Amino acid sequence: MKRDGNASDHLREQAAGNPQDELVAGLSGQPESTQPQALLAHVLDRANLQRALKQVRRNKGAPGIDGMTVDELPKYLRDHWLGIRTQLEAGSYYPQPVKRVDIPKPDGKTRPLGIPTVLDRFIQQAMAQVISAQWEPHFHCRSYGFRPQRSAHQAVREVQATIRAGHRWVVDTDVQSFFDQVNHDRLMARLKTRCSDAALLRLINRYLKAGVNVAGTIEATTMGVPQGGPLSPVLANVVLDELDWELDRRGHRFVRYADDCNILVKSKRAGERVMESVTRFISKSLRLTVNPLKSAVDRPMNRKFLGFTVSRTGAKLKVADKAIEKLKDRVRELTRRTRGTSIGAVVAELRKPLLGWKAYFGITEVLSPLRDIDKWIQRKLRCYLWKQWGPSGYRQLRKRGVSVREAWNTSKSAHGPWRLSKTPALALALPLRFFTYLGLPNLAPR
């Protein structure tokens, strides 16, 4: 895009008036379009754009296909926003294709992530804020994902309360590759029910069909909402809002968080009927597919929802096994034997994922798995140190108060480091208070 020298100078002067204002330059004091479209004018409103820029910068994220970073975005906007805004108002703006990145999943497969350019992330964020505000009053109360003042914890608590109220069977529906399979025509028709702004609808449709850059080749996107953009979660809720109200019309007790939906019933037979009818509705009305391999009618304690499950007695919240294994994989990665990093640095790196995990799973009521993980992490760190000590293992044990006999037997043992990490000698030399002093968090409350 060519720079407009006069416009750039004008914007710099306005931005200089308040250097702390992370304004999309060009919005400070700039008059609105003389003939703004109804919702598009809200998208391009100064306050909405400022909020969008702050959110995009807060979220950070990798560059798109143009290589521009989040930190470079404010200056780019100072130089180019007037021209971009003119294109948006005239309906001549076309977003760039997203960059395809494959994210590893716990099962060994990958999940495609579409990374828009930071400019398109900014515009998407501004659009998402307006669309969300427009739809929010009409979304169902049992939809919890990507909505203000709502959280995964609230969704999990709702499931727990419903189980305790006597609905002890769950219809766990998994929509196959939801974000990749969203029907564009269906989505646009749904959006039109609450949005009559043709300019905004046209812009949304262009983002849906912007294409994806796969290893340098641009591929068309005829369906799906690429994960990775700020607009995707809002559009996902618009699509699945139709399912929410259908379930409500049928009188079902359910909880939905994005494309994870649990319907709670009182018997297995009722669950099987619900599964059949809901699968049919999702297929015929939403034009999506329920994955039969990942969906089931079962007892809640045999299923997981947002990383949690429940105990067999009392429906107490419990961390799901897969969530524990995912955490262990991360710990293994940070404590692998080839790293050669000091134990203090390893613990410092562990703090962020462990504190984040604790913040999310801290509401769990079954604490024994957390205590087991704490012990396992401490053992991994003892194993890490023992491998680092190498030939000096005997001297290190003695220096830490281990008896001559215990230190000698441990250092000369034929067992491997993992086996030795559970011995009394290592527990004495490297007690819990040692790791606590280094800053290692405890996942289980003491």
Can you offer a commentary on this structure?
This protein is α+β, with helices and mostly antiparallel strands and 446 residues long. Helix content is 51%, strand content 10%. It is built from 19 helices and ten strands. The chain has a four-stranded mixed beta sheet, with no helix packed on it. A four-stranded antiparallel beta sheet has the order 6-7-3-8, sandwiched between helices. A hairpin with a 2-residue loop joins strand 6 and strand 7. Helix 3 crosses helix 5. The longest helix is centred in the C-terminal third of the chain and has 22 residues. The termini are far apart.
Helices and strands in order, then pairings?
Elements: H1 5-16, H2 38-43, H3 46-59, H4 73-90, E1 98-104, E2 110-115, H5 118-135, H6 152-164, E3 169-174, H7 178-181, H8 184-192, H9 198-208, E4 212-214, E5 217-219, H10 231-249, E6 253-257, E7 260-265, H11 268-284, E8 296-298, E9 308-310, E10 317-319, H12 321-334, H13 343-361, H14 368-389, H15 393-399, H16 404-411, H17 417-420, H18 424-429, H19 432-438
Parallel strand pairs: 1-4
Antiparallel strand pairs: 1-2, 3-7, 3-8, 4-5, 6-7, 9-10
Let me know the number of strands: 10
**What percent of residues are in strands?**
5-15%
Straight-line N-to-C gap:
59 Å
Helix content class: 40-55%
Q: Helix-strand pattern, N to C? A: HHHHEEHHEHHHEEHEEHEEEHHHHHHHH
* Average pLDDT, all residues: 90
List the defining traits of the structure above.
single chain, 446 residues, alpha+beta, 19 helices, globular, disordered N terminus
